[in-house]
Structure formats: structure tokens, C-alpha cells
Sequence to fold (53 residues):
Amino acid sequence: MEKERVKKSYSKCVKLNPALKLSDKLWFDFMKIFHNMHKNHVYRKLEIVEQKL
Fold:
């Protein structure tokens, strides 16, 4: 689901600036952001679990 959101915002950026479509770096940055969000989400879940122990 998160990945879809990343794809949508990526598409929005490309629509605003079609030249960006040529830039793989932009996509890489998006995936990096997505990956970090995902990691933080997982860590937060772990923290919640640890607090309950």
C-alpha cells in the first residue's frame, strides 16, 4: 500500500516535470524515502512491543 503511495507521488512529480521521467535518480530517491519510512514503521512497532514486555 505504501509503495502505491510512493508511485503516485512519483507520477505526480513526473506530470509536473516530464523531464524527471528520464531521471532514474529521482525514482531511486523515492524508493530510498519509501524504504526509510518502512524501516521506521517497523522499528516503531518493535518499540511498542518492547514497551509492553
